[in-house]
Amino acid sequence: MTKWNSLSASLMKRLKLHYQMSNSIPALSQVRSFTTSEGHRPAIIHKRSLDILHDPWFNKGTAFTMTERDRLDLRGLLPPNVMSSEQQIERFMVDLKRLEVQARDGPSDPNALAKWRILNRLHDRNETMYYKVLIAHIEEYAPIVYTPTVGLVCQNYSGLFRRPRGMYFSAEDRGEMMSMVYNWPADQVDMIVVTDGSRILGLGDLGVHGIGIAIGKLDLYVAAAGINPQRVLPVMIDVGTNNEKLLKDPLYLGLQQNRLDGDEYLAIIDEFMEAVFTRWPHVIVQFEDFQSKWAFKLLQRYRNTYRMFNDDVQGTAGVAIAGLLGAVRAQGRPMIDFPKQKIVVAGAGSAGIGVLNAARKTMARMLGNNESAFEAARSQFWVVDAQGLITEERENIDQDASPFARKVKEINRQGLREGASLVEVVQQVKPDVLLGLSAVGGLFTKEVLEALKGSTATRPAIFAMSNPTTNAECTPEQAFSILGENVIFASGSPFKDVDFGNGHIGHCNQGNNMYLFPGIGLGTLLSGAPIVSDGMLQAAAECLAAYMTEDEVHEGIIYPSISSIRDITKEIAAAVIMEAIEEDLVEGYRGVDARELQKFSKEQILEFVKNNMWSPEYPTLVYNQD
Ligand SMILES: NC(=O)C1=CN([C@@H]2O[C@H](COP(=O)(O)OP(=O)(O)OC[C@H]3O[C@@H](n4cnc5c(N)ncnc54)[C@H](O)[C@@H]3O)[C@@H](O)[C@H]2O)C=CC1
Ligand SMILES: CC(=O)C(=O)O
Ligand SMILES: [Mg+2]
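Above: the input record for the complex with NAI. Below: its predicted structure, written as tokens.
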């Protein structure tokens, strides 16, 4: 204060002198308004960065101006749109009122958002307790912190936003990212989940509000994989949005401009990757919910240089493979019969194409792993997108989908044609599996499900994998009521099992990449591998498939219960490490170097994984003045 008083006095003196010289001395109130750019005496604070945001006395949230953000090392720690305090109040009030509306006609669980808020407040106050609650009640709260509620959270994020969590890099930050990363308080970051918000679950472009999905995924990294919560970082790269509603919404938290594209877009993602790997060379970056157009390109661009993977393309593929192999076993057939399965896939985006590529490779491996095996495997798939069946006749065919375009001769024989509808395809092909990654709720209509009755499989399988719940291609009730008790059913978001009322239960499996990505991340981290190889991903998928017992698959249970996710993740991480050893990719982790790791038995690797999983326990605290 003393310092300020003398500074203020000398400033007044200088101002007075200036105005005397210009012959017009202003009133005292006018002079005061010159004292700071904000027009008030500043508060001297002894904090910077996140400590300010976490201090209710000084925090202004989204109202920090850009100059203040730079001055106080806050750049990147808040969403990019600077708001007035009036806008902040309006955002709060809109959200408050929305709660009443939601309680009347909101989602199937009208309390889901309220539960999310309570958990989020606990997360803000006490991380250890938050993760204790989440781990102990994972089955109950995964649907709140993850799909489906996380989708609703992202859709309502402008109202729900209180304290920032994670970092924001925007198109306005070009050239600044290398220094901005140092605004993050942690010297060690193990896991980053990054999104550009362009395709959040099946909800489309949610712009900067998509950060909720990165936060939700990292919650599972902590709960399932035991990644230390102080070493995770959710990231939003805000390159604008093409969502017209958000572009017009005065309460939107992101940049109100259309998405950057082409080289401008790439330059931003490149700069981000360079910045985070410069500060944290051993971090793993999970790309999440990027629109397909960029998902594949970015994966190809970075996968051989950086420790990264794309969850929607690669994580989903592994989970689908595990489920598809489970479905073969559920039919009472050996897994090696997988290449005989006829599979219709609805949806040819990042997830659908990721699954198709991995399933084709798995079949080809089983058939001898040569060119003819790869070609034979191709003919087991029929792909239907928004324009119907994809064939070689498709104009401007997407290059990622083209390997799965059916040959004209083949489809003529099958009584099909370019653009044939899903019902027609199912009627003619009589598939063993119908798999949906279309983001279109209810796509598997009564007619489609009726057509599946003609399946040549003893137990046809339906994977309605789109998220959140409202986007599921069909519900388990619809599937079981039309196709009977024998059908195998999996959905991306959780549904309740169906009670047939005759003592039998129709199992609703959750086919979601949450069973894989935590183990892929943990295994990669502990192996020290510099990249995430195809082999490591394959090992993760095979481990998940092998987790299910014969009895379980015969009962139609092809994925484990989420309550055992910590155990599954440990097994998957160990499988990933073993594959990294096999491929000579390990570089060690902390005190365990590569050579030591290479000598570990399977049991020792499992022990090593277990010992490196963080558990929420209060540490003893000691004060040290330095
Ligand atoms: N269960 C899981 O673990 C995962 C589920 N997903 C879900 O998959 C869905 C799709 O994700 P992306 O592939 O990234 O999206 P995307 O937008 O890239 O692809 C959607 C695809 O569906 C097609 N489509 C649209 N309408 C259709 C229709 N009427 N019939 C057939 N196909 C139609 C589009 O042409 C496009 O090929 C989302 O809902 C997402 O939540 C994604 C990743 C993991
Ligand atoms: C589960 C997931 O990653 C998605 O729906 O995009
Ligand atoms: Mg995703």
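Notes for the reader.
The chain has four domains: 2-63, 85-306, 315-512, 516-611.
The first strand starts at residue 167 and ends at 170.
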